[in-house]
């Protein structure tokens, strides 16, 4: 039965154990016919990508593990003209180092940047799913085994259906049908701090709404005057801040294609009504 990888981004703490374990397993180790030794530098068959959003002090960080997707419609397989690629019954796409001539067509074809070129050996290389271990009785690839928070998972596709339903894959528009499934990738955020510039105090309990198209999201500033709209879809939002005793404060078309820190936001009091 086909096997798949799963990645729960909310559980990843950025320890890099997966990346280190992959290096430990493949650097200086020749697992022919599965793979030749991985170079010490320049190749990351599992790569942890750090994503930093916002600006100080409104910053959030998350990590996403990236590896070969062992795609059902693998572009690398189609691009190779030398029969170096083959698909196993368990779904792994393997690059036979004995047949690779280093033409790098597969590297150009892969939309995920998962294939590397070894100049010394004149071959391309990539994640094997630790097929050499699985074929010798091991249950898990090294990266999954090394993950202390269970952010990485691995198993039969049929047994991981609960995770796969509602998950996402990288670049689904390519049509490659990748077999690494992700959940809980954070959306964009809009955040800020509301304060009274006259009293030089934060404003707690201010009502904040963010509107995009027909959807409106609501927040209330906390005891630090902060508000956070999280897990937003990328797009432009109109943000309105309302607090008793203050004028409305409006931000139009806030561009949340990236995370946004609106910074310290002063609220103005209404002008005194003139007497008769």
Can you walk through the features of this model?
It is a single chain. The chain has helices at residues 17-26, 75-79, 105-109, 131-134, 142-146, 161-164; strands at residues 3-8, 46-55, 58-67, 85-87, 93-95, 116-118, 123-125, 152-156, 180-183, 188-196, 201-202, 207-212, 215-220, 226-232, 236-242, 249-255, 260-266. The chain folds into two domains: 3-183, 2-Layer Sandwich (Alpha-Beta Plaits), CATH 3.30.70.20; 188-266, Immunoglobulin-like (Sandwich). With 276 residues, it is mostly beta strands. Strands 10, 11, 14 and 17 form a four-stranded mixed beta sheet that branches. The protein has a four-stranded antiparallel beta sheet with strand order 13-12-15-16, with no helix packed on it. A three-stranded mixed beta sheet has the order 8-1-9.
Itemize the secondary structure elements and their pairings.
Layout (H helix, E strand, L loop, with lengths): L2 E6 L8 H10 L19 E10 L2 E10 L7 H5 L5 E3 L5 E3 L9 H5 L6 E3 L4 E3 L5 H4 L7 H5 L5 E5 L4 H4 L15 E4 L4 E9 L4 E2 L4 E6 L2 E6 L5 E7 L3 E7 L6 E7 L4 E7 L10
Parallel strand pairs: 1-9, 10-17
Antiparallel strand pairs: 1-8, 2-3, 4-5, 6-7, 10-11, 10-14, 12-13, 12-15, 15-16
Uncertain runs with pLDDT below 50, 5 residues or more?
A: none
CATH fold type of the largest domain: Alpha-Beta Plaits
Percent helix: 10-25%
Strand content: 35-45%
Counting helices, strands and paired strands, the structural category is mainly beta
Order of helices and strands: EHEEHEEHEEHHEHEEEEEEEEE
Rg on CA atoms, Å: 25 Å
- In DSSP terms (H or I, runs of 4 or more residues), the helix count works out at 6
Q: What is the makeup of the main sheet?
A: 4 strands, mixed
Determine the N-to-C terminus distance.
Answer: 86 Å
Per CATH, the class of the largest domain reads Alpha Beta
Mean pLDDT: 96
Judging by the overall fold, what is the CATH architecture of the largest domain? 2-Layer Sandwich
Backbone shape: elongated
Number of domains: 2
Number of strands: 17
């Amino acid at each position: 039965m086909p096997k798949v990888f799963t990645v729960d981004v909310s559980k990843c703490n950025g320890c890099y154990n997966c990346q280190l374990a992959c290096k430990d397993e493949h650097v200086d180790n020749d697992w022919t016919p599965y793979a030749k030794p991985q170079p010490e530098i320049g190749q990351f068959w599992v790569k942890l990508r750090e994503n930093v959003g916002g600006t100080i002090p409104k910053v959030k960080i998350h990590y996403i593990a990236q590896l070969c997707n062992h795609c059902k419609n693998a572009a690398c397989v189609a691009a190779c003209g030398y029969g170096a690629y083959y698909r196993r019954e368990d779904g792994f796409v393997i690059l036979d180092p004995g047949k690779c001539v280093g033409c790098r067509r597969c590297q150009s074809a892969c939309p995920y940047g998962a294939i590397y070129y070894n100049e010394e050996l004149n071959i391309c290389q990539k994640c094997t799913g630790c097929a050499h271990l699985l074929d010798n009785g091991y249950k898990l690839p090294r990266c999954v085994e090394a993950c202390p928070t269970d952010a990485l998972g691995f198993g039969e596709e049929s047994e991981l259906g609960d995770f796969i339903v509602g998950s996402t894959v990288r670049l689904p528009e390519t049509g490659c049908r990748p077999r690494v499934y992700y959940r809980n990738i954070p959306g964009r955020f809009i955040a800020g701090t509301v304060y009274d510039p006259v009293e030089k105090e934060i404003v707690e309990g201010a009502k904040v709404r963010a509107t995009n198209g027909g959807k409106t999201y609501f927040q209330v500033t906390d005891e630090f005057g902060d508000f956070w709209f999280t897990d937003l879809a990328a797009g432009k939002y109109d943000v309105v801040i309302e607090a008793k005793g203050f004028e409305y404060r409006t931000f139009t078309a806030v561009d949340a294609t990236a995370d946004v820190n609106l910074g310290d936001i002063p609220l103005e009091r209404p002008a005194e009504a003139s007497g008769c």
